[in-house]
Amino acid sequence: MRLGSNIYALCASVYVVVILVLSIPGVEGQQAVATPFKLKKNGAPSLKDILRLVSQAPVADRITDAELEKIKAASPILYDERFRKTEEAKMPPRGDLYRNSTILGVAQFHTIVPDHAIVHMPEGMEHYVIDDPQGPLLFWNDFLGKNLGWLTTQEISLDQASGKEKLPTLVEEQIRQSELIVVATHKGFPISMLPTVEELTTSQ
Amino acid sequence: MRLLCYIAFCAYLPLIQSFGSENIIRQIQLSTGLQYDFVTTEGNGSAVSHLPVIPGGVSYELFAKGSAWDTNVYFLDRKVVGFYLPQGDIQIISEDQSHLDLGENAVQRTRADRPYSLAITVSGLTPDDSDAPDAARQVLYTHTGHNFDTTYTPNGNDEYIISSFYMGNSNPELTPVYTQLTPMAPTKAMGVERFTLSTLTDETVTESSILDEEMILVWPVSEAAITGIEPGYEIRDSLPKLLVYYQDLYPLSLTYVQIYAGGEALGTVGTVLPGSLRWHNTTVPQSEVISIENWEDYIPNEGVYTMEVLSVTPFHSWQPERLAHVSFTVNRKLRINGQLITSED
Fold first, then answer.
1. CATH number of the domain to which B281 belongs
2. Mutate which of B171, B277, B293 to disrupt the A interface (most A C-beta within 10 Å)?
3. What is the pLDDT averaged over residues A157-182?
4. Which of A95, A185, A192, B302 is positioned for an S-S bond with A153, CB 3.0–4.6 A?
5. Contact across the interface for A96 and B75, Cβ inside 8 Å
6. Does the interface predicted TM-score (ipTM) exceed 0.90?
């Protein structure tokens, strides 16, 4: 290919890249990344960096499944004597949101409260406590806001929650007379309410 | 005893919601069963523990909702404060270091065919040969996998164990580590691998605490295909319309189509075709079909040409890799097959 056509191709290439760079959509407010080049405000590299990147010679073909299998077989993870295999495979600790929790639900959605957080259940309203989640999970504040017709709260202290302190008699009476399901809360969020020593002794 | 409890919210993008959405911190006094579920919208921060730490320990668990179409609630972390609290630390080092600009808790990522390294540190345990209980002498190290589907989330797939070991005080480094996600085609492995150090349970503390857990996102190797032109195709007059398929382009990549005169030769720098350039700086792989039209200016002469799809990523030191190529011939000469006939009267 002659020099004249080479220059033509180069100019055409630069022209094309200029147009392409100007039209590359970027992300507003995108932060710079740990790349060997800076990013513009729109999140795209500069023209200079684009040209530099595309002017590099390709160094490898896409790896095939067979090639990768061979490489991985030749490079297993080398666990030495500092690692003692467990007798059987053990999963790491994983939390279960529904463990130790009571599910309150209506047809469209549900929420969870700690076990022993429901301190009053009026007769005939037991159906709001369900065994299996229905619909998406709403966190407590959202669920309460949507179900104020049958659900209410009673703010208690940590000492009252842990059973060290009894609720005032007036508060206990108000809870007993409520026509709504009452959930114990602390600073607005559901908390278990453990029995006092006196209540434990009485129940035995 | 109140405890200043620092909880680092792992920016487990895209699997958890972005900053400002809701998370649950669950606190449980293990010996009494007293449980408190506290909802917060903070992306990270610290707070005084609401429940006092008592003999038997207190467990702190963190759950968060998924982002966008993912309405699942994910368990992220658990810390248990008790009598034995060894130290554990896991560092993952990937070739793609772009997470550094997303914050110290951003999740690293790699590609299905690229190795990464692990640096593990365990300390604070009593010596192995002492008479102390198991929970005081060793911790549990686990490696798990969690495959994604085409939504780029687990979407109901279960996390599975890849390996698990007991460890004492030590600081091994593991390299190279290739993804162990199974079962899927090696180059299309996609999901997250987690490495966890956790305490063992005993009579004094009945729940395990996560000392450190690090995860790395694994994305599949990109693919590409050029259609509309077959290898060895001869272009005579009309130019075929080409479609180029970009599949699973790496979330941080520059991909383009180039053309050059001559047969295929890896390492050739050609001319970039208009409309083919794609820069991506996203959280999940990208796929697209693009049309190449009016490219006659790039084949001015007759002869053999090669078209290639190249992609530049953090791997191979930001040098291009070739995803696909096709060679064809331009032959515009007009041949006439005919016969000269004369007639004589």
1. 2.60.40
2. B277
3. 94
4. A185
5. yes
6. no
